[in-house]
Every structure is written in C-alpha cells, then in structure tokens.
Design brief:
heterodimer; A: about 35 residues; mainly alpha; 1 helix; about 85% helix; B: about 325 residues; Tetracycline Repressor, domain 2; Four Helix Bundle (Hemerythrin (Met), subunit A); disordered N terminus
C-alpha cells in the first residue's frame, strides 16, 4: 500500500515537473515569435 | 447523460444484472499508477497519436518543434480523456464483457466519479493548451472530436445501432485533421481525404474484432453488427467497406499530393487488405454463418488492419518528407 502511494506521488510529481517545463518552453517560443496567443 | 438505454443489454432492460458486483466492491484508497494509465486506453492512444503526428508532418508549412510536440501531446491527452470518459460511461457493460471486466472501474480499483473527473479534466485541459499553444483551428477540431466520441459515439450510438462504429469511426478519424490544422490553421481537401481513409478503415477493423468477440458483445447487449445482423452479413459488410477504402487510399496519389512511394505502398497494402477481406468472406462456416475455423481469417484481418493504417500513413510521411 505504501509503495503504491509512493509510486503514485512520484508519478504525479514527474507529470507536474514535465508540464512546468513544457509551459516554460511554449512561453519562450511564443515570445520569440512576438505572438503571445 | 442519464439515458443509459440499450436495446439488448441485461443491464438496460431493467433486469437484474448478473454481474453488478463492482458496485459493491470496496474502493481502495490507493490505486496503482498503472490503473490511471489503463484508463487512458494507451493502445488506442498510440494509433491516434500516430495519425495525428502524420497529419502534422505532411501538412505544408512549418511548426516550431516545441509547438508540434505540444500539439501531438494534446491529441494524445484528448484521446486518453475520451478513453477515460468512455470507461466511466460503459462501466456496466465492461463488467459483463470478458475482454473488459478487469478494467480499473469494473474491477473496483478506481471509483467511477474519479475516472469521470480525470477524463473531463484532461479533455478540457488538452483543448485549452492546444488553443493557447498552437491555434484556434486545431483546438476547435480537437474539441469537436472529443464531443463526437463522447456524446455521439459513446452516449448516443454505441448502444443503439449496429452502425455505431461506422458513424463513430469519425471520432478516430479526426486526429489527422487536428495535426494538419495545427500547422496550417485551416482544414482543406487533403486532411479530409486522410479523415475519409480512417473513417472507411474503421468498420472492417472493428467488425473483424466483433466477429470473434461476438459472444462478449451479445452478453453486454451492445448491438454490434454480428450480434444484430449475423456473421454472414458482417463478412459481406467488411468486404464492401474494404472495397470502398481501396480507391480512397489512392486519392493522395491521384491528386498529386504524394508520389510513387506512397502510391506503390498503398497498392501493396490494399492488395493485402483485400486478400484478408476475401478470406474473411470465404471463411468456412455453418449454415448460420458461425465460423468453423475459430474466426482465424477475422483475427488475421484485425491484425492486418492495424498494420495497414500504420504503414499507409508512414508511407505518406516518408513520401512527403523525402519528396
């Protein structure tokens, strides 16, 4: 049970980190093209 | 959403279901990460991601790789969201079918409401990110494809008509259009041709599966064509749709969008698919149409249909990128 919970928490953390990195990269690309949205 | 009627099912005719046990299973507080991944139907997702990526690759113009990756990710997440919502809605019939009864919801490993929230969040999130990162056209087509899969296929057609996967096949045909729209910001003839190829590929693909999963669908009351019209008629329909698919698959070559690499690949793959359909049609069967070969040709046709779509779209991408 504890191992499952730990596995789920780590997976969630990795997803959040990946999303933060992706949104950062999207922001940089959009700013380079002078087209926010 | 409240209308859960099906024409044939034990659950939906108001009879007591033989297998409603999942309603009483104690939901574990902790669920495995793999169950949450299983809710996204990863195998279906892989085909959707592939066709979406091909739509993006063959479209004229350029898209920043970060935005291209984001577009494909949004397509994948949207497909997964559809899978999760579909599993939430179909949890009663999934519990009855041998092929699906070990899915996270009917097995009691994920609470239905949690699965619905998960699916809706991912669906809304994928459309918003597509809109903000890529463009409004791709976000609109993505939203349309999610709505079509959830409301038109899952809620409306699946339990009502044997034509469920014919019309519902459109949901699986959208990703190539989304990929194209991500690059061009519009939809024109070529993505519609790609849409049509997947649309006409879907019936022979799913009916091949339905031929040998007939008992499962009958038990669950899903009116798949073999359940309603019988195996003989299903074999005939597989042949008809394969015959319609063949000329359609050659359209990108005829209109000059692709070259000889795609044309030859399409001809070879079409010959293979036609051979599979003929074998299904001529399968040894009894007077009622029940296969005497354990549906070996249908199993082979199902496997070939997956390879067909992968290879056809891969050939299109190779042709376009090399040319």
């Amino acid at each position: 049970m504890r191992r499952r919970r730990r596995g789920r928490n780590i997976a969630l953390l990795l997803v959040l980190i990946a999303l933060a990195a992706l949104f950062y990269a999207i922001s940089i690309v959009k700013l380079q093209h002078h087209a926010p949205f | 959403m409240s209308d859960r009627t099906a024409p044939l099912g034990p659950v939906d005719r108001g009879e007591k279901s033989p297998l409603p046990a999942y309603e009483r299973v104690e939901i574990p507080w902790d669920t495995d990460v793999r169950d949450w991944i299983a809710l996204l139907k990863p195998r279906v997702m892989s085909l959707v991601v592939f066709t979406g990526a091909i739509g993006l690759l063959v479209a004229p113009g350029r898209l920043n790789p970060v935005l291209g990756f984001t577009a494909v990710l949004c397509i994948a997440v949207a497909a997964g969201a559809c899978g999760a919502i579909n599993m939430w809605y179909d949890r009663d019939i999934d519990a009855v079918m041998r092929r699906t009864r070990n899915r996270p919801i009917p097995a009691g490993r994920i609470e239905p409401r949690a699965a619905l929230s998960y699916g809706v969040t991912l669906a809304v999130g994928s459309v918003i990110v597509m809109f903000l990162a890529v463009n409004v056209a791709s976000a609109a087509v993505l939203a349309l494809s999610i709505g079509f899969y959830v409301f038109v296929y899952t809620v409306w057609l699946k339990r009502r008509t044997p034509q469920n996967i014919v019309i519902g096949g459109a949901a699986g045909a959208f990703p190539a259009v989304v990929g194209w729209a991500a690059v061009t910001g519009s939809v024109d003839l070529v993505p519609l041709v790609l849409f049509s190829i997947v649309f006409f590929w879907t019936p022979p693909h799913f009916w091949s599966l339905a031929l040998y999963a007939n008992d499962d669908y009958r038990r669950a009351g899903v009116p798949m064509l073999p359940v309603v019209a019988g195996a003989k008629e299903t074999r005939r329909q597989i042949m008809i749709y394969t015959l319609l698919l063949v000329p359609l698959s050659l359209v990108p070559w005829f209109i000059g969008f692709s070259g000889a690499v795609y044309g030859i690949a399409a001809l070879v793959l079409d010959a293979g698919f036609l051979a599979c359909a003929v074998r299904v049609l001529c399968d040894r069967q009894d007077r009622t149409g029940i296969s005497l070969t354990h549906d070996a040709p249908a199993r082979a046709a199902f496997r070939f249909s997956i390879a067909y779509l992968f290879l056809l779209f891969a050939a299109l991408a190779v042709d376009r990128l090399a040319g």
